[in-house]
Amino acid sequence: MNTTVPSDVANPRLAGAGKLRIEWADQEMPVLAMIRQRFGHEKPLAGLRVAACLHVTSETANLMRTLHDGGAEVTVCASNPLSTQDEVAASICEDYGVSVYARKGEDNATYYSHLAAALDTRPHITMDDGADLVSMLHKDRTDLLAHVRGGTEETTTGVIRLRAMARDGALKLPIVAVNESDTKHLFDNRYGTGQSTLDGIVRATNILLAGKNLVVVGYGWCGKGIASRADGMGAKVVVVEINPVRALEAVMDGFQVTDMAGAAAIGDIFVTVTGNKHVIAGEHFERMKDGAIVCNSGHFDVELDLPSLRELSTASREVRPFVQEYRQRRGTRIYVLADGRLINLAAAEGHPAAVMDMSFANQALAAEMIARSKERLPIAVHRVPEELDREVARLKLETMGVALQVLTAEQERYLNSWEEGT
């Protein structure tokens, strides 16, 4: 066991249980394992320091192993105070020699001290899940900016923040938006969030979804996944959306679409996945029926206006783990799950390893791209190159035993010519 790396975890003695979880997830992550094997031989990250701010889960552990085997000095901190799996955090540092700063349930002061500890390593490459690390780098540690070759971003919320920084001219380093790759958002966001969000709701409440009005606020890839899975379990799905194209798509997918005021009056369960602030506000809490369940599966807890809910309430109590009851002045009860934080990671285990396999394969290859670039990438938010995206998909299909059709020479000529017509 390696106990020499600087770390702050809840209990190092949990490492044995954590290693079992990491190995279990690894069985479902064959693409990342293939990349890790190659990294072990080629050492593309040799001499580089990587600071990662990600959900500290068994899947993330396998990404950290891959970067470490690639020659990097790796430090990881939590991207959410409630998403850390303490036994996994212990194993990452004890068994794999990666510095970890993460404790489940850490307070805000500890959370930001852990971010600072990751930046204290003077990283060459950053990895973010929500852009908190890059945000601190730009606000408080500008002395390190010239030292950073580039970073990656895992989430829609983080990409939104980073694109805003780029528009304002505030972004000072190149970022590869892993979230924008097809093998990330088409699978992780849709199938991963779709399944893990409902898993978190059911684990926290043990309610039957069939027959319930389940309101999905936001119909991006995450919202589509949640709506699809909820529909499959018998829920009556209602969608709230600001984008007319997405709203039309939800209608065509067979779901009721309305505004938040209309949905508030009929919903039994509410799930926010917008990346925006206070999409369920005080006026909406006031319209909800007795016993309404409210949760968030977007990155930040600001999607729910909890301060307004507290002002509207006369009493509050925890009735189950991750279930807080608020009794409003008019007597109705509203149940908020996981303090408005990511329900799929706070009350469950996050995305299945099989989809994180592709997301983290993209992360590893993006880090390699940054490392191998002879010159620093232009300062901007970049997409993962299409060839890397397709390679991840190809490797995933290969591990699944799925064969691809190959174009004939005649078909290749036809697709690349314009002379041949009807």
Give the termini distance in whole angstroms: 68 Å
Q: Supply Rg.
A: 22 Å
- Beta-strand fraction estimate: 15-25%
| Total number of strands | 15
* SS class: alpha/beta
The largest pleated sheet is described as: 8 strands, mixed
Shape: globular
Neighbour order of strands in the largest sheet: 9-8-7-10-11-14-13-12
Note the total helix count: 17
* Sequence stretches where pLDDT stays below 50 over 5 or more residues: none
Mean pLDDT: 95
Helical amount: 40-55%
Structure description:
By secondary structure, the chain is an alpha/beta fold. The chain is 45% helix and 16% strand. The chain contains 17 helices and 15 strands. The chain has helices at 15-26, 30-42, 58-69, 86-96, 108-119, 132-139, 156-167, 182-205, 221-232, 244-252, 260-266, 282-287, 306-312, 343-346, 353-372, 386-399, 409-415, and strands spanning 49-54, 73-78, 99-101, 125-128, 150-153, 175-177, 213-217, 236-240, 256-257, 269-272, 292-296, 313-320, 323-328, 333-337, 381-383. Strands 9-8-7-10-11-14-13-12 form an eight-stranded mixed sheet, with helices on both faces. Strand 5 (150-153), helix 7 (156-167) and strand 6 form a beta-alpha-beta unit. Helix 1 (15-26) packs across helix 4 (86-96). The longest helix is centred in the middle third of the chain and has 24 residues, at 182-205. The termini are far apart. The relative contact order is 0.13.
